[in-house]
């Protein structure tokens, strides 16, 4: 049994597809998929979900780790969106672990001649603004007063919900022990 080529299209596992061709086909297939994601206000998709959908749609598989090719893919998507006058659909793709866009998102402002965000939080806010533009272009249910929103996971990380301090339990003033639910000390009763 021979080893699989680095990139191939099912069901022809033995036939190698040049990786640039695979990237181009994935990028072309990504645009309508991401437009579909943008039709849901507040929607976004993880890198792995997008990759899975692309494999299903194109039949093209790769033995490379997702982290080794996803940035190249989204860079092509950025340029396709610019060429077609579309909003930055790549802003809808986030990491499953933390809800953040990748550092490759910096190509969005760079390709548009804008300043690249200087911090992680600035990058996430810029991505949130781009996502809002995507929703405005594709979603019918965007509130008129909508503002850019961080993803839920990232929002939870930068603005964690503060837990209330536990309430102190009533204590018997004579014995110094916690009172039972009845509120009457068993030793005093």
Give structural notes.
This protein has 189 residues and is mainly α. It has one domain. 43% of the residues lie in helices and 8% in strands. The protein is built from 6 helices and 5 strands. The strands form 2 sheets. Strands 2-1-4 form a 3-stranded antiparallel beta sheet. A hairpin with a 2-residue loop joins β1 and β2. α1 crosses α2 and α1 crosses α3. It is elongated and about 85 Å long. The mean pLDDT is 92.
Provide tags for this entry:
189 residues; mainly alpha; two-stranded parallel ribbon; elongated
Summarize the helices and strands and which ones pair or pack.
Blueprint: E1 7-9, E2 12-16, H1 19-38, E3 45-46, H2 47-58, E4 60-62, H3 66-84, E5 93-94, H4 107-111, H5 120-138, H6 152-158
Parallel strand pairs: 3-5
Antiparallel strand pairs: 1-2, 1-4
Helix pairs in contact: 1-2, 1-3
Tell me what portion of residues adopts beta-strand conformation: 5-15%
Please give the oligomerization state of what you see.
single chain
Number of helices: 6
Parts with pLDDT < 50 across at least 5 consecutive residues: none
Strand arrangement within the widest β-sheet reads 2-1-4
Number of domains: 1
Large-scale geometry: elongated
Element-by-element helix/strand order = EEHEHEHEHHH
| Residues in helices, as a percent range | 40-55%
Largest sheet: 3 strands, antiparallel
Nutshell version of this structure?
The protein has 189 residues and is mainly alpha-helical. It has one domain. Helices cover 43% and strands 8% of the residues.
